[in-house]
Amino acid sequence: MKKNITNTVLQSLTSKPLSKPTTQSDSEGLAVRATPKKGGKGNNVLWIFRYRMGGRETPQRTIVFGKYPNLQLAGAREKRDRCKAWIAEGKDPKTQLELELNNAVKPLTVAEALDNWIDDYATGKRVNAVKHKQQFDRWIIPHLGTLPLAEIKKPHWIAAFKKRSRKYPVAAGYVLRNLQQAIKWCAKSGHELDRSVFDIDFDDIGAKHQAKRSQRLVEDDSWQRLIDLLNWLDEGRMLPYYKHLLTLLITFGARTQEVRLAKPKEFNFETGVWTVPAEHNKTKDKDQTRGDSGEIKRPIPDGIKPLLVALCEANKDGYLLGELKEATAVSSWGGGVWKKLGHEEKWRLHDLRRTVATGLNDLGVAPHVVESLLGHSIQGVGGIYNRSQYLPEKRQALGLWCHKLESLRIGEQNNVVRLMGEL
Predict the structure, then answer these.
(1) Are 119 and 136 in contact (CB under 8 A)?
(2) Has this prediction a pTM greater than 0.70?
(3) 290-294, 337-341, 342-346: which range is least confident on average?
(4) Residue 136 Cα distances to 188, 195, 236, 272, 380, angstroms
(5) Residue 53 contacts residue 91 (beta carbons within 8 Å)
């Protein structure tokens, strides 16, 4: 490759008298342009690169690489070679150089990385996105937020967690898992980072492994705790919001967020079906990998229909329950119900789903129908090939369950054989 420019030529261009701007080529689009300085003392020498994003019929473009001697000959040629490689990939060198400059001038900080995950991913796919951000703001941002993400290594993350993990060991585990998911998303987006963050486990940060809850309001054939809850509901000594919330949770076995976020448009009283949108349930991501919509369809039992009709009519343009309460507020209220009822063992609102599942199983409902009613993804080959919503089976199951709830309210034993005959 012929090289027309030498260091001697460059030094000469900076000092020799010039009456007008002059350009001298090197090779493959690289050149220098010398312009006389005002006052006649030397010349300004700039590196330029000319290129086309196509054949000779496309317009020529020019980029200024920098000023000599700040940018030396070897550096200018290396920059030219990178531009040629980008052109071969169909990328505009001007854009790529601007991206490099932005990254060099302002590297992505930890706070920016976590905010990007919240705004561009979690907000659309996580019901608790606001809570995730609040946790990051308490656990991570005060200690690492302003630092470049690419420079943060395992010891830095661990040190940040240990400032709070001793006092809140369970929460530490949740924050760690969300942090790792956020950083993984950043890595997929092409950001530079130290991957040792994925090697951090609960023991490293002093987090507590949370035991899986298995609390139900039905234990050893005793329905008394559920009866207590039903009687308390009938007495109505609570805000209408929570009375309706509990009623729907007990009836459908739905997740709290599915009821909390429900809107009247989800309920079709002509078909008798409540369609829970994908963004309100946890099966969304799993089902999308199989090509499903991620929706959950639940039949509307006759016994609950009048309440739902009234709520839909009263809140046509808003939320089914009349307002949107934060998940933390609902969880906090629900976490104290067991005390109000005088129960010895603690239970929470999510345990009502387990209660409904247990009750349906006791009534002889097939496991796959129970799973579909709860909105669980069916695993394995069956989940890939079976797209059925089991609406007739779920309608029968909810009919049995509502009869059981009514029998508990009036103190009668449910005759399953007779009810199945009636249905």
Answers:
(1) no
(2) no
(3) 290-294
(4) 20, 19, 39, 42, 35
(5) no
